[in-house]
Amino acid sequence: MFDLTNYMTAEERIELFAADCPDFRYSTTHEFVTTKNGDVWVVIKASLWRTEADAQPWVTGLAAENMSTPFAIEKAETSAYARCITNSGDPKFSTTKTGIKAPRANREEMEKLTVRIDTDLSQDWDSFVKDKPEATTTLAQGVELVTKELNAKEIPQCPHGSMVRKEGISAKTNRPYRGWTCPNKDRNDQCAPIWLA
To answer: What pLDDT, in 10s, does the model give residues 132-173?
Structure first.
């Protein structure tokens, strides 16, 4: 069974490596890439030397992060650095916390793949899907069924990507608010928010 707690975090991999190679050094380069849908990603290449005396990098690693993510550059740099350590092939840095051989992904990478659901899905699939279809279900039908069961709503999009949900109590009016805002960091170029009643 998949258990996210078995995965080492990037920080844990870095700490292990630093203890093993205290004279290490690393450097990074970065590039910004814009996808066809307009999302901007930062791609970081990290190079790692075991000692500062090494003429050439021992290993390299790549990582990318969507710029709409808070601290995108910092997260990508840390991931690229941890990816270098994993790419070394040293089993010490490629095991789970329990000491067995681990997948190459670190915990942060696996967290990106998990879906957060605000409902209890601890029961089995048969009880979750009350009325099982008799015929074969397509992927699209399955997504529609799960969406309906969870009362899921699509995240609004704007030209800058997926909008960000905001909610709280207004400091000016002391009244609650909730809605969706543009992910663009440049306030002068942000799209109009979508406020919910």
So the answer is: 555 556 777 777 777 777 777 778 899 998 888 888 888 888
Residue pLDDT, tens place only, 5-28: 667 778 888 888 888 888 888 899
Q: How far apart are CA 28 and CA 46, in angstroms?
A: 4
Long-range contact list for 48-52, CB < 8 A, 24+ apart? 48/24, 48/81, 48/84, 48/85, 48/88, 49/24, 49/25, 50/21, 50/23, 50/24, 51/21, 51/23, 51/24, 51/25, 52/23, 52/24, 52/25
Q: Which residue has the tokens 């090494």?
A: 54
Domain ranges (residues) in the chain: 4-113, 157-195
Kindly report whether the global pTM for this prediction surpasses the value 0.90. Answer: no
